[in-house]
Amino acid sequence: MGRGKIEIKMIENTNSRQVTFSKRRQGLMKKAKELAILCDAEVGVLVFSNTGKLYEFASSSMENILSRYNKAPESSELTTIENVAAEHEWQPEVNELRAEVALLRQMQSRLMGKELDGLNFKDLQQLEHQLTEGILAVKDKKEQVLLGKIEKSLLQEEKVSLENEALREQIEELRRSSRHCEERALALDNSVCDSDTCLRLGLPVDTSQNMIIPKMESTSNDAQNTMVLE
Q1: Segment 121-166, tens digit of pLDDT
Q2: Which of 15, 62, 203, 218 could pair with 58 as two cysteines, CB 3.0-4.6 Å apart?
Q3: What residue stretches are annotated with the K-box domain (predicted)?
Q4: What is the torsional sign of CA 106, 104, 99, 86?
Q5: According to the model, what pLDDT value does residue 200 have?
Q6: Fold of 10-72
Q7: Cα–chain-centroid distance for residue 167?
Q8: Closest CA to 32 of 53, 49, 54, 56
Q9: Phi, psi for residue 57 in degrees, rounded to 5
Q10: C-alpha span between 65 and 44 (Å, rounded)
Q11: Is 3 helix (H, G, I), strand (E, B) or coil?
C-alpha cells in the first residue's frame, strides 16, 4: 500500500517538528541545486527556522541573485490587471496626443516644403502667409541680435577709450614728475658749483681783512722806529 496523504498543518510536537524541518530543508536545498544544474537557472533559497537561524543556497552568488531580483519588474497577475485597466482609462487621451503629434509633424513637413499634395489654393496661400510671417520674425530677431552686438561693441569701445585716457593721464603725470626731478637736480648742481667757486677764491671780506692787517703792522713798526730815534 502507498503512503497516505499527509495533512499540511503545523506539527505540534517540538521534536517531530525539528526533525521534519531538517529533512525537508535538506530536500529543498537538493531540489534547488538540481533545478539550477538541470535547467541552467539561477536559483537562490533563503530559509529561517522558528528559532531565527538562517539557511541559504545560491547557485552563483546570493548578492547577485538578490540584486537581480530587486531590479526585476513586477509581473504578478494583479499588476498586469492594474496596468491593463490604467491603459484603458488613459487610452482616449493617448490617442488624442498621438493625433496632435502627427498633425504637428505634418505642419513641420509642409513648412519645409514637403507633403504639399492634397492642399488647395487657399491652403497654399495660408501656408505662404505663415512662411512670410516666420521669415519676418526671423529677420526681426536677427536685427535685434545685430543691434545688441553693435551696442556691446560700442560699450567696449567706450570702455577702452576711457582706459586709454586714464593711461595718457598717468603718462603725463610721470613726465611732469620726471621734469620736476630734473629741475631739482639741476638746481642742486648749480648750488654745489657756486659753493666750490667760493671755497677756491675766498670770501671778499676775509681778503680785505688780510690786506689791512699787514698795513697796520707796518704803521706800528714805523711808530716804534720813530720813538727810538727820538
Answers
A1: 888 888 888 888 888 888 889 889 999 999 888 889 888 988 998 8
A2: 62
A3: 87-177
A4: positive
A5: 52
A6: SRF-like (3.40.1810)
A7: 35
A8: 56
A9: -145, 135
A10: 7
A11: coil
Query: Distance of CA 121 to CAs 12, 115, 116, Å?
Result: 91, 15, 11
Which cell numbers in the block locate residue 74? 513586477
Structure-block grid coordinates of residue 69: 531580483
pLDDT one-digit tens code per residue, 37-68: 999 999 999 999 888 888 999 998 888 888 88
Q: Which amino acid is at 57?
A: F
As a whole number of angstroms, the distance between CA 230 and CA 79 comes to: 166
Give the pLDDT score at 197: 57
CA distance linking residue 3 with residue 214, whole number of Å:
169
Tell whether the model's pLDDT for residue 79 goes beyond 90. Answer: no
Terminal alpha carbon distance of the chain: 198
CB 30 within 8 A of CB 42: no
| CA separation for the pair 214, 173 (Å, rounded) | 61
Tell which phi-psi region holds residue 148, choosing left (phi > 0), alpha (psi between -120 and 50) or beta. Answer: alpha
